[in-house]
Structure formats: C-alpha cells, structure tokens
Design a protein that fits this description.
The protein is an alpha/beta fold and 230 residues long. It has one domain: Undecaprenyl pyrophosphate synthetase, CATH 3.40.1180. It is built from seven helices and six strands. Strands 3-4-2-1-5-6 form a six-stranded parallel beta sheet, sandwiched between helices. The chain binds farnesyl diphosphate. The site of farnesyl diphosphate has 19 residues, from helix 1, helix 2 and helix 3.
Length: 230
C-alpha cells in the first residue's frame, strides 16, 4: 500500500439493523457493534496514512426513525466521543463535523464541541463525522451565504462555492465506500464526490473489518482515474 492511496475516504455505514436482526438482537445492538467498527476503521486509516476520513453517522432523513432509536444513536455517539477523544488527541486526529448540530440532543452536542476543541491541534488526520447532514441542505446553506453577503453572479465560482461547504479546505473524497449492499449515494457529499471512485460492498457495517478496508483500498489503487480526460 502507499501507492495510489486516497487522500480522503468517505463511508456510508449501512447494515447495522440487518446485522442485529440476523442475530435476533435489537437494532441498537447493531449500532453498538457499528460504533466499535468506527474505532477500528479510523485506527486502520490512520495507520495506512489516509489524511481525511468522513463517516455518515446520521443523515437529516434519519430523524424519521423511531424516537428511541434516534436517542440511542446519539447516546452511543456521546459515549464514543467521551471514550475516544483523549486517544484521538494523542494520535493527532482532528474531529470535524459536517452538518447542522444545532438540532442534536444537548449531551451529544456538548460532546461534539468538546471533541472538536480538544482535538483541534491534530495534524495527522481529519476525522469528519456527518451528523444531521444532507448534501442538498449543505448546498442550500452555501447559496444562502452568497445571498447574505450580497454576492454578484461573478462571485459564485466552483472555488467560492466549495469554500462554503462543511468540507472547506479539505480535498474531495477520492473513494466513497458504501457497505450493506445498497448502491446509492443517499444525499451524501453530492458536490464533493463528483469524481470519487465508488465502492459498494454487501458486507454489513458491523462486519466491516480491516481486511475489507484493505480490499477497498486495493480496488481503488487498481483503478485508472481520468477526471474526464483521455
Ligand atoms: C445504518 O444502519 C447506520 C446508521 C444509520 C448510523 C451509523 C451509526 C453507527 C455506526 C453507530 C454510531 C456512530 C458513531 C460515530 C459512534 P441501518 O440502521 O440503516 O441498517 P439497516 O439498513 O440494516 O437497517
């Protein structure tokens, strides 16, 4: 590895519920197992030398899930951050959030801002968590910021638009992985993934291990990226 390594990997973590149901467990056990995989994947990406990782942890559509499941997801997030932030700080991993955190439950919101503050000096890797994120809402937010500033048509360029997205200053994802067998983008990083290589795997997120990540990286390394050129 090392050659043709993506600078930025984005992941749609899907299949927690099915993983749990297949074992006769409540769905929340699938999310719990999924959170453990988050830790392992971040560690493996850091070891491989990947500088930016973005995980889709909660979409703006996920509010439509049963209240108890939503509550559980945010309490898992808080638990995860409280436990992992000291380690991230130690390893030089900066936490960043994509999405509108204002609507998050208070405890989770506080854990997120604590985490961002404590890890802000991290230069080894940026770990983006997409929370209450939707790509269309992100583009609307960017458009509104132009209007608020009284921008003229010429001020709106690909660069200035990218500068108003949550991923400002970061390279676009080179590789987008979706686990759980579905083959769609689900309103995730639509602008930033214009040239991303897509990798779909039937493996359910709680089963996604280091070897699966390595397989995705090998698949990526073998692809020829032309960015529309010959
Ligand atoms: C999809 O599985 C996964 C999610 C909606 C959220 C992902 C959350 C985690 C991995 C756990 C908490 C996150 C962190 C960062 C600690 P699904 O429920 O849609 O699965 P299904 O398609 O099988 O029903």
């Amino acid at each position: 590895m090392g050659e043709n390594l993506p600078a930025h990997i984005a992941v749609i973590m899907d299949g927690n519920g099915r993983w749990a149901e297949a074992r006769g467990l409540p769905r929340r056990e699938g999310h719990r197992a999924g959170a453990e995989v988050v830790r392992r994947v971040i560690t493996e990406c850091r070891a491989a030398g990947i500088r930016h990782v973005t995980l889709y942890a909660f979409s703006s559509e996920n509010w439509g899930r049963p209240k108890a499941e939503v509550r559980h997801l945010f309490s898992l997030l808080k638990e995860f951050l409280d436990r992992e932030i000291p380690l991230m700080e130690q390893k030089g991993i900066a936490l960043n959030v994509l999405g509108d955190t204002a609507a998050l439950p208070l405890g989770a919101r506080a854990a997120v801002s604590r985490g961002i503050k404590r890890t802000s000096g991290g230069v080894e890797m940026t770990f983006n968590l997409a929370l209450n994120y939707g790509a269309r809402a992100e583009l609307v937010r960017a458009a509104r910021s132009f209007v608020r500033e009284g921008a003229s048509p010429g001020d709106v360029t690909e660069q200035s638009l990218a500068g108003r997205l949550y991923t400002v200053g970061q390279p676009d994802p080179d590789l987008l992985i979706r686990t759980g067998g579905e083959r769609r983008l689900s309103n995730f990083l639509l602008y930033q993934c214009a040239y991303a290589e897509l990798y779909f795997t039937p493996v359910l997120w709680p089963d996604f291990k280091e070897e699966h990540l390595r397989a995705a990286l090998e698949d990526y390394a073998a692809r020829s990226r032309r960015f529309g050129k010959i």
